[in-house]
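Quick start: read one record
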Amino acid sequence: MRAFIFPGQGSQAVGMGKALAEASPAARAVFEEVDEALGQKLSVLMAEGPQEELTLTYNAQPAIMANAIATLRASGIDLAGKADFVAGHSLGEYSALCGAGAFDLATTARLLKLRGQAMQEAVPVGEGAMAALLGADLALAQAIADAAAQSEVCTVANDNDPSQVVISGHRAAVERALGIAKEKGAKRAVLLPVSAPFHCPLMQPAADRMAQALGEVDVAAPAVPVYANVTAAPVSDPAEIRRLLVEQVTGMVRWRESVAAMAAAGVTHFVELGAKVLGPMVKRIAPDATVTSVITMDDIESLVAEV
C-alpha cells in the first residue's frame, strides 16, 4: 500500500518550482493558475525571491502547496488509482485535499493565502513563539509545556516524530520552556524562526476566519481518504473535512500518530511530493517503510516508472 504525503511550512526555498515549470507544461499551468487565483506573481517570487518575502507565511503557504501540486501534475499520476491514502503536515493537509480532488486548485490557493494572513494577524508580532524540543517525545514535551505555562498559553503544536516535538504559545512561556526542557532531559531546545505561534489556542481568531471561509467554498468527497492532522484518522466526508480544518488552526498536528496509523493500516511506501522534509520523519516513525522524496524531473520520472 502507498501513501502520498505533502510538506508544510519550512520547506520553501527560492528557486522552488522553476525547473519544473521550465520542463513540464502541466507544472507550469499549476503556477499560472495559482498566480491568477491570487492576483499576484507568486511563481516569480518562488523562482527569484527574495527569500524573506517568500518566507512570509501568507506567501509560503500557497507557494508550498503550488509546488507540491505542480510536482504531482507533472508526474501525470492519478492519486485515485495509485494512492491508498494521502496526508499533509499542517498546510500540507490542504495540498493533500487538493491532490485528492476535495478542493480545486484556485480555491486551495485562496484558502491558504487567507489562512496565512489570518494566522499572522491573530497574535501581535513578538507576543508569541514556537520552539522545537529535540530528543523529547510527546509525554515529555507536554510535561515541559505544562510546567512552563504559568497561566499563559504553552502547548504542544506539532508531534512530528518520536524525537521531535514543537511547542507553541506566549513568548515568555515558550522561553521558560527552553530552560525547563534541559532540566527535564531534552537533548536540545531551540526557538524557531517563525512569525506567529501556530497550532495553539492563541490562533482562535484565525480559526474563526477559516470557519467562515471554509463555509463559503465547495468541498467534494476526496477520491482518496485523507488522514486529518487533528485526529490522525482518515476522513472523506466534506462536512467533517471542513470541521477538522478549522480545528487544525488551534489544534496539535498529530503527524507521528498519522504516519504510525497509515503504517498499521498496511502502508509500506510513503511518497513525499515537492520536498524532503517529511521523509526523514517518516523513517523515524516507521523504520521499515520505503520513503521516496520527489522534487526534480528525474525524481518524477523514477516515480512514474515505479508506480
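The mean pLDDT is 97.
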